[in-house]
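To illustrate the input format used throughout this study, we show a single complete record. The first block contains the structure-token representation of the backbone; no residue identities are included at this stage. The design step must infer an amino acid for every position from geometry alone.
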């Protein structure tokens, strides 16, 4: 029987690390990217985790994001959504209130996908595309059950904590991205 692989993309973390690395993402086909990295493994689920932008306050980005979501789903990628929540912080010097949005539940959903996929024996190897250290307990759990965790990381992206907990780290290069264009 062929080895089975699942890919879990932390969308915001992945794109942030591509930008930090200076890599041009172009119009990525994430299913193709997953298949290129899987090698002889059979690709099962490819899951993309993110939060939708607000259609009221960011209408154009919302429209663009909905097109992106449709393209993901059209290629066979599973979309799992979190929430954007409003937050604010006060500047300690000028006391001005700075408002921003932050994502909620993405790391919990990825951790649940890791653990449940392991328990349900859905895969032999999981490719994790996230540098979120909150995932380390789930990574340790699935590795303790004999599953392999491979970190896919854009070259030059900092990710030491998660990197040390995975079986292997594979750097994503510009060539990899070019080979996975729509």
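Output of the design step:
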């Amino acid at each position: 029987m062929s080895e089975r692989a699942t890919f879990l993309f932390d969308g915001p973390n992945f794109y942030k690390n591509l930008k930090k690395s200076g890599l041009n993402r172009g119009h990525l086909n994430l299913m193709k990217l997953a298949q290129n990295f899987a090698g002889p493994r059979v690709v099962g689920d490819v899951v993309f985790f993110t939060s939708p932008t607000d259609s009221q306050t960011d209408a154009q980005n919302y429209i663009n994001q909905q097109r992106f979501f449709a393209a993901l789903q059209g290629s066979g990628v599973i979309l799992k959504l979190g929430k954007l929540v409003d937050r604010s912080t006060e500047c300690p010097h000028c006391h001005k209130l700075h408002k921003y949005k932050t994502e909620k539940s993405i790391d919990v959903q990825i951790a649940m996908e890791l653990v449940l996929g392991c328990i349900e024996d859905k895969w032999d190897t999981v490719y994790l595309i996230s540098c979120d250290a909150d995932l380390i307990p789930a990574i340790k759990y699935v590795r303790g059950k004999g599953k392999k965790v491979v970190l896919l990381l854009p070259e030059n992206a900092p990710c030491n904590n998660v990197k040390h907990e995975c079986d292997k780290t594979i750097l994503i290069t510009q060539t990899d991205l070019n080979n996975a264009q729509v």
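Structural context for interpreting the output: The two ends are 31 Å apart (CA to CA). Residues 59-74 form the longest helix (16 residues).
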